[in-house]
Specification:
about 190 residues; alpha+beta; 5-stranded antiparallel beta sheet; 12 strands
């Protein structure tokens, strides 16, 4: 007798169930991995942006001569810093008016979850192209703070702390970084 062998309905159902379960496991692993990748990429982006802002503040502070108590409508404090720098030309040479050195001011401040930078430059300075422009460096900042050593009036060392966040997959990723700078051109 020549019987045809084939799959019974039960064997077919069991096979399809096993394949379905394997596909569910593979898909779950893929989705978890993809979500983790997105979260880590966002966290890395926030970290990189925060570090770039911190580096910019530290470099400007190191190039500064002193921390000014007030300038224009701004006042140096825990969330604001006014840095007086020598005005420079495009060759990075310090500018003078006769024997008097010319100055630029850079203001960093925190307001409404944003970190701002404003440059007030001498008209002959290479920084003049940004004169008065209020540039927003970060729109997701939770805080920006400055500590002055030995005190605000005679500071030669400034400690900067930046706390920022980003929302990814209905979760907030926060970053805290800090740095310090000694005014190299202190007068």
């Amino acid at each position: 007798m020549n019987r045809k062998r084939g799959l019974t309905l039960i064997e077919l159902l069991i096979t399809m169930s096993l394949i379905g379960m394997i596909l569910i496991v593979i898909t779950s692993v893929y989705l978890v991995g993809f979500r983790t990748f997105r979260e880590e990429l966002a966290s890395s982006t926030v970290q990189s942006n925060a570090q770039t802002i911190l580096d910019q503040i530290v470099i400007d502070t190191k190039n500064g001569m002193l921390i000014e108590p007030t300038y224009d409508t701004y006042t140096t404090g825990t969330n604001t810093i006014i840095i007086r720098l020598p005005a420079i030309n495009s060759s990075k040479q310090i500018l003078y008016n006769g024997t008097d050195m010319l100055y630029d001011r850079i203001v960093y401040y925190y307001a409404n979850n944003e970190i701002h930078k404003i440059t007030f430059a001498d008209p002959d300075s290479s920084r003049y192209k940004n004169d008065g422009a209020d540039t927003i460096l970060d729109r997701n900042a939770l805080s920006l703070s400055f500590e002055y050593d030995p005190d605000q009036a005679t500071a030669t060392l400034v400690k900067v702390t930046l706390h920022s966040t980003i929302s990814v997959s209905n979760r907030n990723k926060e970053i805290n970084i800090s740095g310090q700078a000694r005014l190299r051109n202190h007068i």
